[in-house]
Design a protein that fits this description.
Number of helices: 4
Number of domains: 2
Strand order of the largest sheet: 10-13-12-11-14-15
Helix content: 10-25%
CATH topology of the largest domain: Alpha-Beta Plaits
Distance between the termini: 22 Å
CATH superfamily of the largest domain: Aminomethyltransferase beta-barrel domains
Strand content: 25-35%
Order of helices and strands: EHEEEHEEEEEHHEEEEEE
Structural class: alpha+beta
Amino acid sequence: MPDNLPFDFSGFPRLSGHALLSLRGVDAAAFAHAQFASDVTALPVRHWQWSAWLSAKGRTLAVFQLLKLDQEHVLLVLADGDADAIASQLQRFVFRRKVKIEVRTDLAVAGSFTAPEAASGAAIALEGDALELDVGSDALPRTLKIAPAPADASPADAAFELAWRQSDLRYGVPRLDADQRETWTPQQLGLDRLNGYSVKKGCYPGQEIVARTHFLGKAKRALQLLRVADGTASGAKVEQNGAAVGTVASVAGDLALAVLPLEMAEGALSVGGAEAHGVPLLEGLAR
């Protein structure tokens, strides 16, 4: 995408917590395919998918959007996590592959709770120098735009960023704070709902654990959306009948994604002594 044209983010508040990580070179797609949990080689050019980077033990280090802009350019949209640290860790696996890993601080990410003008589903639209992504559904339309960062960027809108994070949770997109990284398998985080990992592609870090859990049916916990008290922290225990039954993996205001057993007894749930209520997850964000 061009890097030298101005773009008007009018109507699209910036998501200051989002970072962009670029993989460029003839081996960019192959490198991404070998490192990340999604099937990058099957992804068409100018399309995107959900993906994850896992530890060797199959625990989730990062969840992100993976954009295949062309055969030699893959762009990661990281809503959480230290992009510089992830770039540094990925660099250790480059070896002789022809790929350049770079944090794109010259680009900005912005969002809007409106339907996209041209993008649809996994297809990326190019609007001049901006990329437009469809990150919603009819139930909750959302658009993400990526473009050169304005020189006179306005301050981040905390209320909008919270609303965006809450909308991610409503779709079942886990937003992992530092204390929840390398804790959960992709199955426990419900990444199958987003098509965020593959059990058919070749090897990648953690692939054996993911495949074994999938094919042997050993997943005993899954993600559930809860309405909780404001101030609930990630890592908080979910209790039922006086006993801990699960853990809050991601939180945004009064919404939380918790990893809970697939089979549970009857009884009210609570988090931090306050009653918690289940909320249906929205469908339509699988890519």
